[in-house]
Amino acid sequence: MTPSRLAAFASFLVVVAGLLVAGPVAAAPAPGLTVVSSDAAGVTLRFVLPAYTLKPIDRAEGRFFRVDAPALTGSTEHEGRPAFPAAGGLLGVPDGAEAVVRVLEESLVPVTGTDAREPEPVGRAGFRPDGTGFAPTRDFYRDETFYDGTASWPALTAELGEVGGWRYQRVVPVRVLPFRWDPAARTLRAVATATVRVDFVPRARVGAGSRPPGLGLDAARAPGRIAGPRTDSGFESAFERGLLNYAAARDFRSAPARPVRVSTLGGSPAPAAEWR
Q1: What is the four-CA torsion angle of 137, 140, 141, 147, rounded to 10 degrees?
Q2: pTM
Q3: Mean pLDDT computed over every residue of the chain
C-alpha cells in the first residue's frame, strides 16, 4: 500500500471510530401531538409546533392575518376571538376516573411578520335558509372587549373537552392551543414545544373525599359495569386510529353488567341474555 493510500485509510478509520463513539444521532421529535407514555394512571403528551405561515387578509372591516398550519387540524371556536389552529385528539379514560390536564413545561417564542395586523376573528355563526343545504354561515364579528383589552388569549396552552362514550370506551378530547395573541402589545407568540400531562384521578365512590378501595381498574370501575372486550370486532381499527393512547385504553373498556331475570315461580334468579 502506498503512503498516500495508507494515510487515506487511516483517516477513514478515524472517522469511523468517531461515529462509533458518538453513537447514533437522535431523531428530531415529530411535529404535532405525540404520546410519550401511557398507562392506567394517565398520559404524557409531547407537542412540537409544525410548520406554519401567516397569510394577510384584507377586508372592509380591517387588516388581519390568518395562521395557516396544515398539520394542525383543530381550531379555536370562541366567536369574536382570534381564529387560531390547534392540535387535538381523543384519549381513552378509565371507567370511574376523571381526567385532569396540566402543562409540565412549555417553550414560547415570538412570531414575526404580523405587519401591524391583528388575527382574524372567528365569525358569528348563523343560518340563512337558501334551499341548498343546512351548513351554517359566519358573519364577521370582532369582540372589541378582547381586541381593545390587555389580556392575552388563549389563556391556557392545553384543555380538555367533555367526557363522552364511544361504545365500550369512555373518551375525552384533549387540545393544545399553541398560538397566543397579546392585544395590548399587538404581538403574537407560539408554543414551540410543550409537555402535557393528563392524569386519571379516581372519582369519590362512598362519601366526600373517599376513593374506591384498591388501585386496579376493577376497583375504579363504576357500579353496575364490568370489563369490556379488548377487541371490538368491526370497530377496533377505528379505536386504533382515533385514540392517542389506544394500547393502554383497551384495558379501560367497560360494559353494563349482565342483567338478572327474576323468576316469578320462585327459585334462583336466572341470567338474562348477555348485553350487547
Answers
A1: 140
A2: 0.76
A3: 83
